[in-house]
Amino acid sequence: MLDYLSLVFVVAVKVFKKTTPNGKVTVYLGKRDFIDHVDYCDPVDGVVVVDTEYLKGRKVYSQLVTTYRYGREEDEVMGVKFTKEMVIGTEQVVPMVNNKMELTPVQEKLLKKLGPNAYPFTFNFPEMSPSSVTLQASDEDQGKPMGVDYCVRTYVAESEDQKNHKRSSVTLAIKKLQHAPASRGRRLPSSLVSKGFTFSNGKISLEVTLDKEIYYHGEKVAANIIVSNNSRKSVRNIRCMVVQHVEITMINSQFSRHVASLESREGCPVTPGASLSKTFYLVPLARSNKDIRGVALDGHLKEDDVNLASSTLVTDGKCPADAIGIVVSYSVRVKLNCGTLGGELVTDVPFKLLHPAEGSNERQRFNAMKKMQSIERHRYENSLYTNEEEDNIVFEDFARLRMNEPE
Amino acid sequence: MFDTMANNFTDESGPMAYPFKMVSQEITEHMLGWNVPAEHQDMVHDHWRSYPDVSKYWHYCLALIYTMLFVLSISGNGIVVWIFSTSKSLRSASNMFIVNLALFDLVMMVEMPYLIANSFTGRMLGWQTGCNLYAAIGSVSGIGAAITNAVIAFDRYKTISCPIDGRINKVQALIMITFTWFWTVPFTVMPYFQIWGKFVPEGFLTTCSFDFFTDDQDTKVFVACIFTWSYVIPMTLICFFYSKLFSAVRLHEKMLQEQAKKMNVKSLASNKEDASKSVEIRIAKVAFTIFFLFVCAWTPYAIVAMIGAFGDRSLLTPIATMIPAVCAKSVSCIDPWVYAINHPRYRAELEKRLPWMGVREPAPETQSTNASTATSQSQPAEA
């Protein structure tokens, strides 16, 4: 909720910060979304500001933690926990261990601004670490949503393994996302299938071709369908849908959800000997699937940036089956209904749904669109908070949030 | 003088003492079932007549045990039904089964005041009708509780092995609950109307159950069937589902370990306290407890019935046959503690509503610490 406030300072660089409940340690992060470019991943770079007198010889540690949540809290019977927390990196921040650490530009700026009590820390995501994914909860689900998420936890303790105290620890939720490669490739995914019938001669064949291999979130997926009917049956209707396949590797289960679908009788029935060529347009959007439980979304921290989960990409030479966490993939599925006795002819054409790569033209267009949306939201939300003085808002809100935290 | 007095005494009291003596002798030599009037004599199997009547102290003792069980059952199961049905956070499909089990246990509890009354009169109140009612209540609740245990095992297996899509929804849960009630019907209705098998007094002749003594093929087949229906099938299902559940948990743990290894992670725990105790052991403990309770509840009954139908009947003294009934009833009082008290949300609710019970449920880790409260800060323009 606080982020829209940053729009007040449009030219300013956005920095995220959070303070421990006792107010002695503050963590600053330059961003919350860290992009996995498949061959390398943005490091998690931040700065900790600490009241050195308060420490009294104790140390400040930071951890990069990933949490897998693969079941609802209320279903945890018999002592089973559907939550697994993995600490994928721990670093002693204060006192600094590695003085020659290479600093990122954001860290340099922050160190300069925050003075001598600021200490930098950097984490690298392990090569194989999964992307942040949230599975959409239904209304009746309580507790945290399922999925994979990341956070940076900072705490004060005598030693690394010592149990940290709530009042002197702070956790910032972050995301790890994947973006599309700079070029979208020329390959047009397609599939050709045909179906024969037990009691009659001839076949119905179906060819589905997509206009791209990689789509960006919000883009229209165009599926070109060619049906040629050389059988004695006729095609009653055509269903076309975008299927999201979700594989939850930690419990070896998978499911799929239809995130966009369309049914058409136009040009039907396709009678024996006839053929049909047609293009279907589908837009898979998180917005239009709000009520479907289990739809995978890109890990989200706040309401505004919800979009369907991006397809999971793996490094060249690695098997997609090696990917861990929640693996997401998409396909266009076309179903021909060949009548009650004829059955169905089904084919799947895989494609990828991703964010445009940083810096590309598409990215700029995408950002512009996003910005417009958030400005509109901002305008609306601001109308609810007009009484607050702009200069103080950040700090007042922050104080209120801190009061809500448990003591 | 003493002699005459003594003579006088005997002379005077002699004719009076004789009938008294006769009566007392008769009491000590009363056989079980002596107080059943002629028209109801056919209720009592000859086997019981070979045992002397049970002293009233045994009856009182049994009544006392049942009184305690009654209080325990009504408080334990009553609280379960009350809390699960009135608190919103506990309204889930899985919990419907727990409420169902508590309902079956409450049905069994209805038997208890009946038995207490019987114990004080020393016979079955209401003769055959009373006996039928008593046994029908016992049969519905016993068979129902057994199959509900199996259904709970199934539900847990589904929730744990496929936590995302495998869960049972409320409609399915209702269907399964209806199924548990139907499961009790055949072996309650058939003996009730004496279509197949019948209900007869047993043990102290103050309780009733199905007949496993009549020495004919029909009864033997009946005993074998009810044994399979209400003991073997639920037990097999319980073992099957809990072992499947256990292997599912092991698989999940293994896969998570592998993923952790891929990321070079050392610590793998849902939280720090759990690190020392593996999930598998915890699950195995709970599953074993449930299985063990089921065995405790119904194995004595099964053994007695099998001995009665197929074995050496001289082992079945009245007291020996009362033990299974007490076992089955005690487990109906323990059930809520096993299923509900293990439930973190139930404990939390219990603590809220009945703080005097001293249930201490550590508050679940608060969300706000993990929620993002990142805020933005303006930087100088040159930054």
From TrEMBL, chain A:
Domain Arrestin C-terminal-like, chain residue ranges per copy: 200-358
GO biological process: G protein-coupled receptor internalization; negative regulation of phospholipase C-activating phototransduction signaling pathway; photoreceptor cell maintenance; sensory perception of smell; signal transduction; visual perception
InterPro entries with a match to the protein in the record: Arrestin, Arrestin-like_C, Arrestin-like_N, Arrestin_C-like, Arrestin_CS, Arrestin_N, Ig_E-set
One Pfam family hit: Arrestin_C
Presence of keyword ATP-binding: no
Gene Ontology CC: cytoplasm; rhabdomere
Entry keyword annotation includes Metal-binding: no
UniProt keyword annotations, A-Z: Sensory transduction, Vision
Single GO term (MF): G protein-coupled receptor binding
Family (UniProt): Belongs to the arrestin family.
UniProt-recorded name of the protein: Phosrestin-1
Organism of this sequence: Leptidea sinapis
UniProtKB/TrEMBL annotation, chain B:
Principal location: membrane
InterPro entries: GPCR_opsins, GPCR_Rhodpsn, GPCR_Rhodpsn_7TM, Opsin, Retinal_BS
Domain of life: Eukaryota
CDD domains tied to this protein: 7tmA_photoreceptors_insect (cd15079)
Membrane-protein topology: Multi-pass membrane protein
Transport as UniProt keyword: no
Localization per record: Membrane
Protein name per the record: G-protein coupled receptors family 1 profile domain-containing protein
Organism this protein belongs to: Leptidea sinapis
